[in-house]
Amino acid sequence: MKQPFDEAARAHGATVLRVCRAVLGPGPDADDAWSEAFLAALRVWTDLPDDTNVRAWLVTVAHRKALDITRTRARHAVPTAEVPERTSSVGVPGETGEEVWSAVAALPEKQRLAVAYHYLGGLRHTETAELIGSTPAAVRRAASDGIKNLRAQLTGARP
Measuring CA to CA, how many Å separate 98 from each of 25, 86, 92, 102? Predict the structure, then answer.
């Protein structure tokens, strides 16, 4: 029989907090990861099989929540007193790039998603396939066709 949630939280709370602090360092981020881990655990507690190793499961949940916070940290801008003046290295044609974004928006949905996730989002074809519910081979083909169509639209050549 599975123990009540509050007993599991008391028994394994310190271990979960140590995992969060090991990944994030001491401070409010580790405390937030600890809280998020137990909130997530509480949401699925009743569906958890009785033979589950609760400690290992809670540590896994805490580890994933800590990684989520680490990823969030990486996305935040770093404040600075002065913004450096740099020219764009993107090489987007036109002043605002509206022509490119219009061409991307005009692609068929599967090609647009494959191009966006793979080339703009940096995801592998396998990850993109999972997102859009396709196979890696189909995504690879859709991305290739999308790039071919974009080149044709932007250069005026026929695909």
Answer: 43, 21, 9, 6
